[in-house]
Design goal:
- Helix 2 packs across helix 3 and helix 10 packs across helix 11.
- Helices cover 40% and strands 19% of the residues.
- It starts with 7 loop residues before the first helix and ends in a 5-residue tail after the last strand.
- The N terminus is likely disordered.
- The protein is an alpha/beta fold.
- The chain is built from 12 helices and 17 strands.
- Keywords: DNA-binding, Transcription, Transcription regulation.
- It comes from Promicromonospora thailandica.
């Protein structure tokens, strides 16, 4: 290990010479030998691959086959021949990324991979928040996923480099959280050796189910606020409509039911539905409105905006007045204010989720493994409009 960090050009030349000499070198070993951080070595490798000095292989890099018999100085030395004999060996992508407190080295920007389940609802504002927070210091690579574990893992693997991708320095991800496949994904994420921050999700990993770092909205608080608002408006018989496929629904339901019990509300309708995009939505919406009429419900909390707007439209077609006969609160506030009437809505702090996730990842990159795991919880707020 050297005790004085070399200049970037000198360091890269020594890195190439070391790979030629040893035939195989882990990034962690190179970082100790050069006296720089693993992420600096990784950036050097990316530059050397780009200019053809090194060749990218699965999960790392090696001396190109055309140069395998040549030493760092261009002579056919024994060291060069030894490197040629070890073409199967390669430099391994780092298993940990840790920078000391302070600025990033060499003016090189870290690369952050971001995988979200949707690019057209809810998540665009999260993305904008992350992009604004990363501006000027990090490169953000975005991939759209789904609510399917296999699809999310495929996108993550491509970013990490398992499938020839960019080889990012850290990950921001909103993965599925239910079922054994989600548990396996959490363990896989924890084993990557890269900083990972979950957005709007909470997962645990390892034999002791320790939490992964996360930034999330307190959705139970948000739905509870909606229940209090309806109670304050004099509603006693209320209903709750949530999306069966949304990871957020469980928290929304928990918070609403808890406050309803606290305030003595009668929850006469608690129904899960398919999303608006599903062919079964029309039937689910009709069933909700039928149940409202039968039970005497005077107010609903509906997750999310699209379903709330559709329910209001169908209610009006039946002659139900909103809010005189049925008050409606939407959850998400993506487009609720554009409805007729404009819908009261709970608004999660979406942009702050993205910015907060970038901030956590930045601190993890700079602070290393000694930094405690942070789980940040943000409060949503209620915007009162004409529908209540």
């Amino acid at each position: 290990m050297t005790h004085e960090a070399p200049l970037p050009s000198e360091r890269r030349a020594r890195l190439v010479a070391r790979v030629r000499e040893t035939g195989s070198a882990r990034v962690t070993d190179l970082s100790r030998w050069l006296g720089v951080t693993p992420v600096t070595v990784r950036r050097d490798l990316a530059l050397l691959v780009a200019d053809g000095t090194l060749e990218k292989v699965h999960g790392g890099a090696r001396i190109p086959a055309r140069d395998a018999g040549t030493s760092a100085g261009g002579q056919g030395t024994g060291a060069g021949r030894a490197a040629g004999a070890g073409l199967g060996a390669h430099t391994v992508v780092p298993t940990a990324v840790a920078l000391p407190e302070g600025s990033f080295a060499d003016d090189a920007q870290p690369t952050i991979g971001m995988v979200v389940p949707s690019l057209d609802y809810y998540w665009p504002e999260v993305i904008r928040g992350a992009r604004a927070a990363a501006h000027g210091w990090a490169r953000l690579i975005l991939r759209g996923g789904s609510y399917d574990v296999d699809q999310i893992r495929h996108q993550l693997a491509a970013l990490v480099g398992d499938e020839g991708g960019a080889g990012v320095d850290g990950l921001l991800v909103a993965p599925p959280v239910e079922g054994p496949e989600a548990t396996e994904l959490a363990d896989w994420l924890a084993g990557l050796g890269l900083p990972v921050v979950l957005m709007e999700r909470r997962l645990a990993a390892g034999p002791y189910r320790e939490p992964l770092e996360s930034v999330a909205t307190d959705h139970a608080l948000g739905s509870g606020t909606a229940a209090r608002h309806l109670a304050d408006r004099g509603h006693r018989r209320v209903g709750l409509v949530t999306a069966r496929t949304s990871p957020t629904s469980a928290a929304v339901r928990r918070g609403f039911l808890a406050v309803a019990e606290e305030r003595g509300l009668d929850v006469v309708l608690d129904r899960g539905t398919v999303p608006l995009s599903d062919p079964g939505w029309s039937g689910d919406a009709a069933a909700v409105l039928d149940a409202c009429a039968e039970s005497g419900a005077t107010a609903l909390l509906v997750h999310s905006d699209r379903e709330a707007i559709s329910l209001v439209e169908q209610a009006q077609e039946r002659g139900v007045r909103v809010p005189a006969d049925l008050a409606v609160v939407a959850y998400d506030d993506e487009v609720a204010g554009l409805a007729d009437p404009p819908l009261t809505a709970v608004r999660p702090p979406k942009a702050t989720i993205g910015a907060g996730a970038v901030d956590l990842l930045t601190r993890r990159l700079r602070g290393g493994d000694d930094r405690p795991v942070h789980r940040v919880e943000l409060s949503p707020h209620l915007l009162v409009r004409s529908s209540t």
